[in-house]
Write a structure and sequence with these properties.
It is built from no helices and 17 strands. By secondary structure, it is mainly beta.
C-alpha cells in the first residue's frame, strides 16, 4: 500500500491507503497528485527499478481507488497538471478523461523534459534539454492545454543550475553556471 495524506486545514490529516499492485518489497514513490474532472489522481512509480513502472491511481472519494499502468514514458520526476479540459503529464502526454492518453506534439522524444509544467498567464511552460544543440536549455510553452508545445526561448551554453516559478504576475527563470 501507499499512503496519501490529505488535510483541509493543515493541522489535522487523514490517511488514505492506495493498494498499488506492485510486487511485495517494491519501494513505491508518489510522484505527484492532481485533482481533475471530479477525481483525485496519483502518479506513482517503483523508483528503484532500472526501468520504472509507472501507475496512476484515481478516486472520486479518496476511499476506493482504481489503478492502471500509466502509458506516459520515462519521466520519473514530473507531475500531473490539470489544465482546462486536459490532465497534462510533463509536456509528454495529455488526457481528456484521466484514463486514455495522447502524446503531445512539439517536444521531440529524444529531448528531455527537465521540470514540472507551470501554468502561467493562460499558457503552460516547461524546461527542456535539447541534446542536439550547442545551447541545449530551452523553455517550451503550450497555449492549448498541453496538446502541443513550441520553443519559447533558447538559453545559452554553460548553464549548470536552473530554477523557476510563477509568482506575483511574473514568470521567473534563474540560470547560473555555478553557485
Amino acid at each position: 500500500n501507499v499512503n496519501l495524506y490529505t488535510s483541509d486545514n493543515g493541522s489535522s490529516w487523514s490517511d488514505h491507503q492506495i493498494t498499488h499492485g506492485y510486487p511485495g518489497g517494491t519501494i513505491v514513490s508518489i510522484l505527484s497528485t492532481a485533482y481533475f474532472s471530479g477525481k483525485y489522481y496519483v502518479l506513482m512509480a517503483d523508483i528503484l527499478s532500472t526501468t520504472p513502472v509507472f501507475k496512476i491511481a484515481y478516486s472520486s472519494n479518496l476511499a476506493s481507488w482504481s489503478v492502471y499502468y500509466a502509458p506516459l514514458g520515462y519521466s520519473p520526476k514530473f507531475k500531473l497538471t490539470a489544465s482546462g479540459p486536459n490532465l497534462v503529464h510533463a509536456g509528454l502526454a495529455y488526457s481528456t478523461d484521466g484514463l486514455t492518453w495522447t502524446a503531445s506534439t512539439g517536444i521531440p522524444p529524444s529531448y528531455s523534459v527537465l521540470t514540472d509544467v507551470i501554468s502561467f498567464n493562460g499558457s503552460l511552460y516547461t524546461m527542456v534539454l535539447e541534446p542536439s544543440y550547442a545551447d541545449p536549455l530551452a523553455l517550451y510553452s503550450s497555449s492549448d492545454n498541453g496538446a502541443s508545445w513550441s520553443k519559447h526561448t533558447q538559453y545559452g551554453s554553460g548553464v549548470d543550475y536552473y530554477s523557476w516559478g510563477a509568482t506575483d504576475g511574473s514568470l521567473v527563470v534563474f540560470l547560473s553556471d555555478s553557485f
